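Task: fold both queries, return tokens.
Query 1:
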Amino acid sequence: MNLRRLGAALLLTGLALAGTATPALAHAELLSSDPGAGAALSAAPTQIQLTFAEPVGLPDTPITVTGPDGATWKVGQVTVAGAVITAPVIPSGPSGEYVIDYKVISDDGDEVGDKIRFSLIAPVALPTSSAANTSTPEDTTATTTTTATSTPAAAQPADTPSDDDSGVPVWVWILAAVVLIGAGAFGATRLGKSKPDPTTTTDTKPE
């Protein structure tokens, strides 16, 4: 009799534990995703959006997307609004199966996660800076050519006063004229001093 009661008590306890464990296992349950699991897309998505059964938190790396070539997409800033998390992505890679690996923090603090698989029908090329770099050599050549053609003009000397027909600079003639004028004035002064002053001359007549 005691064994029956003990067995019944253990059974009730097990059922109670199972009932309380079910809600815990349901924490952070994924309700929907975009792209959806198993979807075959003709165009690559530009964002990943996941909707859960309850509000969630975000760990350090909540979402990664890996392609069939092993390369990962660039994932932007992941935002959370209650039970919905959104992440902008830059897709790239060949056609084939891609895997979204997500991790979130449930209401009880546990980190839970799973994988969502979808496929791309057509490959996606990642924009690179190579197209922009192709114009660099042409731009450099144009700049060099412009500099080379403009250098002789910049190197030309500035206009200088023109010389006369004999090739003697003008300033030489000006200097010569100044010297001649100065010499004439000096000579005139000397001559003026050497003449006797008629007002001071005295006649010396014999007695």
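Query 1 returned. Query 2:
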Amino acid sequence: MIAIPPITSISQGHLNIWEICQRKYQYSFLEELSLPEADLQSKENLLLGSNFHLLMQQKELGLDVAVLATSDPKLQLWLSAFDQKPPEMIAGDRLCEHRRTLGMPIEMSLHHSQNSVHGQGYFVLTAIYDFLILGDLQAQILDWKTHQVAIAAEKLKSNWQTRLYLYLLAKTTNYSPEQLSMTYWFANTAESVIISYSQDDYISTEIKLKQILAEINQAIDYPKLPLHSSECNYCEFRDRCDRGDMLTNSASSNIADIPEVTI
């Protein structure tokens, strides 16, 4: 097997996929395999989501968003929804598309036969916040979502986007965990889902992070999921794992009927 250099930059995407399927992690991030060509609708949805994030950034910067907003009826609807029913926001310094990083060394111990090798791996945790407000006594993360329906708070809280974003903010500022929160605002429904934070959340996230990073650092094999795992049904790499044919437009046409939960 060809030796693959380890990843040093870790985002919420790496963490989510590692917990779902280590073989998918290998394909996606280590081998960087190209994905099947997205269908036209998927491309349009991705472009719309990207344009909405750009629109919100320009709006916050005080730029004229009329041209971009009128480029698609959905953008106009989403902007109108935001103007009529925005999420609650605290007062403070406001930052758009804010990148925050944190270096995290990980002790490793590899055992080969009767010999043990000890060393240290190093990862850089990375997050890009759609919108961040740093107040006197509180800090608030806001994230814009263009999913068809709002996602339940329990699912949002367990996702690594929420866990990593709040952890990084607690780790790189002087705010206590209880002073932090994350608000997801869903453009299609104008609903806000607010995730609070606590010291227990912070500690449990740090423990889990170190565990996952140690696993990534020491991984030699990347096992497939068991046969008939539901996660394989709509995986873009299913054919590589002998879980079915490569997804095509016709094969995945019913994906639109499945609630969108990836964040």
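Both queries returned. Flag for query 2: The first helix runs from residue 12 to 20.
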